[in-house]
Amino acid sequence: MVKAADRAKNPARSSVWLEKRAARAGGGPAGLDRDRIVAAAIRMLDEEGLAKLSMRKLATELGVTAMSLYWYVDTKDDIIEYAVDTVYGEIDLDAVDAAGDWRDRIRVLALDYRRMLVRHVWMSPSAGQYLNIGPNAIAVGSKIQEAIRDTGLPMGRQPSAMSAVFQFVYGYGTIEAQFGRRAAEAGMSQNDFYGESIKAFRDDPHFVEALEPLAELLDERASHGSVSDIWERDFAYALDILIAGIEVMAARPS
């Protein structure tokens, strides 16, 4: 069994995808397997977040003892790593292949990645904490690399272009997911939460002077009437800007 303390000694090499797990003697509990454990963990993570996931609560959800889980995983970190890779599998790589040129493939990948981050609020911090080297993560990374390769950028510039697009998507999806979480925790729709938040500081006399340069922008945003419309519009246009920038850089002489 791999212990959490052992992993802490060498976090750069700690991953369920790198460690060789010794087979357990005998058979595991009837009706239980790793896929079922991970699926239940994802449901709990979606509903309650990372902080509330525990082996005990997960076992209760599955109707087994906590020790039963250790037939299939060594630590809670194992489960989260498997969950991370499982949700990478939600990105539709067949749709990416069918999209056509590199621009459309980047758009499909970016939109699917963003939507996955929004569906699973816990994914952003988890993806930053664990090595993303499971089979689904590698498959997604390969499709990203293929699309960036086809831009015509030299190899030395391709990682930068990849970062420009997909770190933007990661950040955008993270902010969108966290905003949705905060609205839900407040028992409000995103529209109401946004409207009340904007009104709170626009009505505060202490902010009048500071907000004066932003008034036109805030009025423009308010004219859309729907937070979801703002998310979609800003994401699409920002992605267009990034793709246009890649086109310009690819066309420059070496």
- H/E series: HHHHHHHHHHHHHH
What is the SS-derived class? Answer: mainly alpha
Q: What helical percentage do the residues reach? A: 55-70%
Give the terminus-to-terminus CA distance. 52 Å
Beta-strand residue fraction: under 5%
Weakly predicted, low-confidence segments: none
CATH superfamily of the largest domain: Tetracycline Repressor, domain 2
Summarize the structure in words.
By secondary structure, the chain is mainly alpha-helical. It has two domains: 4-87, Homeodomain-like (Arc Repressor Mutant, subunit A, Orthogonal Bundle), CATH 1.10.10; 92-185 and 224-251, Tetracycline Repressor, domain 2 (Orthogonal Bundle), CATH 1.10.357. 67% of the residues lie in helices and 0% in strands. It is built from 14 helices and no strands. It has helices spanning 4-9, 34-48, 55-62, 66-69, 76-88, 93-98, 102-119, 123-129, 135-149, 158-185, 190-202, 208-211, 215-222, 227-251. Helix 2 packs across helix 5 (76-88), helix 5 (76-88) packs parallel to helix 9 and helix 7 (102-119) packs antiparallel against helix 9. The longest helix has 28 residues, at 158-185. It starts with a helix and ends with a helix.
What features would you highlight for this structure?
Tetracycline Repressor, domain 2, 254 residues, Arc Repressor Mutant, subunit A, 0% strand, single chain, globular
